[in-house]
Every structure is written in structure tokens, then in C-alpha cells.
Amino acid sequence: MENAASMRVVDVRCYVVPAEWKELVFVLVECDDGSIGVGEGTITNCAAPVASAIGDMAAYLVGKDPGEIERHWSTLYRMFHWRGGAIQMSALAAIDQALWDIAGQAVGLPLYRLLGGACHDRVKVYLNQWFRGARSVADLTEKAQAAVATGIRGLKWYPFRFVPLSRQAYRFSKAEFDGAVGEVAAVRAAVGPEVELMVDLSGVADAHTIVQFCEAIAGCDLLFVEEVAPPENPALLKTLSAKVSARLAAGERRYSRWDFKDLIETQAVGLVQPGVCRAGGITEMRKIAAMAEIYNIGVAPYNPVGPVGTAATVHVSASLPNFVIMETYDDDSPPIRREIMDVTLSIDGDGFALPTSPGLGVRMNETVLRRRASVATSHR
């Protein structure tokens, strides 16, 4: 591989690949020495707009030195007058990951080494979507025990997932409330005290219900309670943080350091949850984490994405002194992932071992990508 300073971007390719529960959005940035960096900007229900934004950004990037990552991030953020938000920041995240992948390949080092080295010997994970198909408490506890039997030591789920959207945030029945509390107690009893448990409320309940719920599950020793208030109502989050003893977590629907500023400065949460595929990529995620560290707030990265985003999350998590635990999903589409990836990272027990391959350490089979993609674009 040529010296990174002499390289130039010659093509930016974007692929949207349908999967079981969301479309995966991938970017491949190719340089004139033949090196290819990969990135991911997967976002639920918005793949086409993200792919379009990637095309807009590609027009700037082609011909540039891929090593000037900070310059490119700043330019690509500011070139949009209507900046920020889920679409622009997901597109920027994908390109940013690909540029960091190229940088790691250029010097033959795994990415976390370029970010200052490892602060952790392993990257601990918790599992989401392990509960799919559970319609009763018995189903749920059986699935929890099955997940723990694989070596996983962290589980998260949505105890109010069956409440209709029309009544969320306003009125729960006693049966719905008691059922949610009962689920938490039953799962804790099923997996024992050594497994980290977390619940995500997705901003669906009013303040009174949240306080009651957190009091009712206090004896279950949860690692955190997520999104007790919707992102549109930061004042409610601050109010609730003063009323409950549970550690609160939030941030999956915030997309930049500016979005996280008030969340961190008010110290309304014990954990922030930026996503490397949503909050501007590796470059921005590290800045958000540094802001949180000032206030002794930990980072628990949001990561409901595909294999490239997961690899990027592993690398950045390994480099953060205030990293706590990262999200990963029960593999929703293993045939697709096996087909589109030549090399990927896999969970070993309760987390990921530190990668050893250069860059992100994952490689994609572009022939299969072209065949499986619903959208495939090239920008030279």
C-alpha cells in the first residue's frame, strides 16, 4: 500500500441491502492505490435518504486525500445549510468509518491503535432482541436463560413493548404496568445476580408512571433504565433523574456533540448512548465520549446495526476510558451477513476480543453486495 499522504479517493460506492428488520446501508471508499475502506450508515426506515446524502458528500470527497479525516468531517458537516439530524449524520458516519478504515490499513494497525490504544482488554456487550417471539413471562425467562447459556452476561429488553402506540406516554392499564414490573423480577430471578440487566422504555410513559416503575423494580439491580423521556423533552429527563434512584441512560436519538451538550452538562444521565452509525461516526463519537468523561458519565454505545458498524463500535469502545458496555443484537439475518462479508468480527463469550487485523478488520464481498442490494451507486 502506498503512503497514506499520497493517496487520493477515486470512488465512493453505496449499497443498500435489505435484511430481515431493516435495510443495511454500506459505503465503500476506494483510493487510487486500490485500498478500500468500509463504513455503515444503517438507520431504520430511512435508507434511501441516507444513500442520497452519501451521494451528495461523495461529490466533495472524490479526489481528496483520505487521511485528512478531521478536515473532511468538518467540511461535510458544514457544507449542509440544514445540518444535523439522523440523515446527514448517518451518511457522514458511514464515510467517516471508511476513512478511518483506510488509515488503519495504510499503517497496518487495527483502528483502536490509531485512537490511542486500548483502554480495555475486551469489549463487553449486552444483547438486544434475545426476547423475540416471547409472548409470556415463561417464554421470556426461557429465552433469557438460553442467551446466558451462550456466555452473554448482559440483556436488555422493552417491558412495555405490547402497549399500543395510541396510548403510549399517556395511560397504561394496571395489568400492563404490573406485567412490566413482573417481567423484570422474573428475568432477574431466572438469570441470577451476576448478569447485567437493562430495560428500554423508549420514552413511552408519563413521568408519574416512570417514577412508580423505577421504584417497583429497584430491588432488581438493573445496570440502567434507558430513554425514560423522549428526546424532544430534555427537561422531563432532568426532572426524572432527580426523582429516581436508577441509573438513567439516553442518547440513541441524538446525533452530534451539540445534541449531547445539554444531556451531559445537566448530568441527567449516568450513561450516554451515542451510535457510531448515527452520531457522525468514530470522529464525533470520541468527542461526545470526551465531553461525558468530564462529568464522570460513562458511555454505552447504541449499536442496532450490521457487521461494519459493529466493528467500528468495537474499535472506538476499546479506546474510550469511560466505556462501560456496548449493545449488540441477536443476529437477525445470518445468511445475508455470511454472504456479504468475507471477514467479520464475532462475539466470544461476553464480548469481543480486541481485533488484530488492520483498520476495522472486516471485509465485504462486493460481488454479493451488488447482487443483494436494492440500491447500488458509484460516485467517481
TrEMBL record:
Q: Which UniProt keywords apply?
A: Lyase
Q: Which domain of life is it from?
A: Bacteria
Tell me one Pfam family matched here.
Answer: MR_MLE_C
A biological process from GO: amino acid catabolic process
Signal peptide residues are none
Under the heading SUPFAM superfamilies, the entry gives:
Enolase C-terminal domain-like (SSF51604), Enolase N-terminal domain-like (SSF54826)
One MF term in GO for this entry? magnesium ion binding
Q: Where is the Mandelate racemase/muconate lactonizing enzyme C-terminal domain?
A: 137-247
Task: Spell out the protein name for this chain.
Answer: Mandelate racemase/muconate lactonizing enzyme family protein
Task: Report the source organism.
Answer: Limobrevibacterium gyesilva
